[in-house]
Design goal:
With about 575 residues, the protein is of the alpha/beta class. It contains 16 helices and 29 strands.
Length: about 575
């Protein structure tokens, strides 16, 4: 319950109280006469990313249990609604329901996921950064329906749009200053109003391609929440829930219902929110937590439909304010009967997809994971699968564009590869964004700046096998304004093909178009010249798997530290 809510509730109780010897008490008769609070159950999820089928590998487990899959998600939602009995249930989500999706959903522009979540009873969802992957016009089509302007209705049936309401409070049309979509919704339960404000992270333009956010601007999350909270209160709404696609991370010792040492943007954002806001359903970091921050209930349900956050609210009938709020993250186990309607949906789209998904494109000698190695105590090291992808991108552009090195962003590596045959669908799940490869000219000095930006953004660029360099854990980190001032990368240690990079010389380097546009904070890449756009990154990955099959996990020795390579 918010601080202001407690005050308002106290005022209401005082009006019914009797003063005895200076103390305020309530008689049993008066207590019985007070109306019982309204019980509301919020069922929340986030970062589903189109995982209609149970995710594979580490993405398919949580809290030691196999979890996920929309057939099971829908079944668990139905069970939780039934268990709520007289409670009024509202189902909500905190963004990234679509985008970076497996082939079964992405091949149809995520229409299957929207249909599945609509059938599962979703009511409101905030817009995540991945909802902007194909641009604002496509997001509006996802909400309102209609066939895709290029691919049409690929499954042969009309797309009716989302059966739930997307909310986007802090994404504004730059030309008009108006919100792209409805900023909030008011939901009535037994005469009590509940306000839902939805938004994505302010930094969306830094992590989405520039085409995806063209014509849009994004406002501060806390300022926006406070603005619309005031507007809701003017409309008589005292129970306020924020669906925010931004989050945090708790310590590794924390379980799915803990809040151990929570860090990240969600802490500051929540602390700056108005006391009238009662609950924050968060996302983006793919973490699970259940927290109290400054008197507000703050939750996150990990990712891929593996958890449902079951939030119980008690709302005062007279004041309309939240009296209490409690939550539990519930695992979406696979030991329940599948929802048959979801099974039918999956089967229908798999039939339309045809044999493309099952085509074997290569083979691995062992499981190749995307997990990053530890680099001086942080997860800023290399990734076996990330390195393989960088090698694939170099192989696609070395002879064709004269590239001598390639770098891959970690956010673009979405899943692991199991040992054995690799299907097209599995390769797609690893690289689902359909980014183009871009080869460009960078000076040696610019390359050092790019590498220094890794320690500002806390994101490692996975290097191709031609690249080597040394990191000094005691070096200084540059600034956003001057990344080149950093000294984390030992000068003179960067090599391409074993030859030291000359800061004054120019080199052809391959990245994807997201990075080339400065994505993930790598603004130094926008200084590249002589850009040539190549094939889709997935095609390059598939070609590499086929040509190099069987592929093994590479040795992680491309980035080393001064402890491994003492200064000369």
């Amino acid at each position: 319950m918010s601080i202001s809510g407690m005050r308002r509730a106290a005022v209401g109780l005082t009006a019914l109280a009797v003063t005895v010897f200076g103390a305020v008490t309530t008689s049993p008769e008066q207590a019985d006469a007070q109306p019982k609070p309204v019980d509301v159950s919020l069922l929340a999820l986030n970062d589903f990313h189109g995982n209609l089928e149970p995710p594979s590998g580490s993405n398919g487990t949580i809290a030691g249990q196999a979890a996920g899959g929309v057939e099971f998600l829908a079944a668990h939602l139905a069970e939780l609604r039934a268990a709520a009995k007289k409670k009024n249930t509202i189902t909500v989500a905190a963004g990234d329901l679509i985008g970076a999706s497996p082939l079964l959903s992405a091949a149809f522009h995520d229409e299957p996921t929207i249909e599945a979540l609509s059938m599962a009873g979703l009511d409101y969802a905030s817009v995540g950064n991945h909802e902007f992957d194909e641009g604002a016009a496509e997001l509006l089509r996802i909400q309102n329906g209609g066939c895709h302007p290029v691919d049409g209705c690929a499954d042969g049936t009309p797309f009716r749009g989302a059966g739930f309401q997307y909310l986007s409070a802090n994404a504004f049309k730059t030309a008009t200053g108006k919100p792209l979509m409805a900023p909030y919704a008011i939901h009535k339960v037994q005469g009590v109003k509940i306000g839902f404000i939805g938004m994505t992270l302010e930094g969306t333009p830094q992590i989405v391609s520039q085409q995806g956010v063209a014509g849009l601007s994004f406002a501060d999350e806390a300022d926006t929440a406070n603005r619309y909270a005031r507007e809701l209160r003017r409309k008589g709404v005292e129970a306020i829930v924020v669906l925010l696609h931004e989050g945090g991370t708790q310590a590794a010792t924390g379980g799915i219902n803990d809040c151990v040492g929570l860090t990240g943007p969600i802490v500051d954002i929540t602390n700056r929110m108005d006391p009238s806001i009662d609950v924050v359903v968060s996302g983006h970091t793919h973490q699970a937590y259940n927290c109290d921050i400054n008197g507000k209930l703050v939750t996150s349900a990990s990712s891929f439909g593996r958890l449902i956050t079951n939030i119980d609210l008690k709302i005062d009938r007279r004041s309309g304010d939240v009296i209490s709020a409690a939550a539990e993250n519930v695992v979406v186990t696979r030991d329940v009967a599948k929802d048959p309607k979801q099974t039918d949906l999956i089967d229908r789209y798999k039939t339309v997809l045809g044999p493309v998904a099952d085509r074997v494109v290569g083979e691995t000698t062992q499981a190749i994971t995307r997990r990053q190695e530890t680099l001086f105590g942080t997860s800023l090291g290399e990734s076996p699968l990330g390195n393989v992808i960088a090698d694939a991108q170099l192989a696609a552009t070395d002879d064709e564009q004269g590239a001598v090195a390639a770098f891959m962003n970690p956010g673009g590596v979405r899943d692991d590869l199991d040992a054995g045959p690799v299907t097209y669908e599995e390769a797609f799940t690893v690289q689902p964004f359909a980014n183009n490869l871009v080869t460009l000219d960078l000076t040696g000095a610019q390359l050092y700046c790019v590498l220094e930006q890794q320690f500002i953004t806390n994101r490692t660029l996975y290097p191709s096998a031609t690249v080597g360099y040394v990191v000094d854990p005691n070096g200084t980190t540059g600034t956003v304004a001057d990344p080149c001032a950093g000294t984390r990368v030992v000068r003179g240690s960067l090599t391409f093909g074993g030859t030291a990079v000359d800061t004054a010389a120019t080199y052809r380097v391959t990245v994807n178009n997201f990075l080339a546009g400065g994505g993930d904070g790598f603004s130094a890449l926008t200084g590249g010249t002589n850009l040539v756009t190549g094939q889709i990154d997935l095609d390059a990955f598939v070609d590499y798997l086929t040509a190099q099959s069987p592929v093994s996990a590479p040795t992680l020795d491309r980035i080393r530290t001064t402890a491994e390579v003492p200064a000369a």
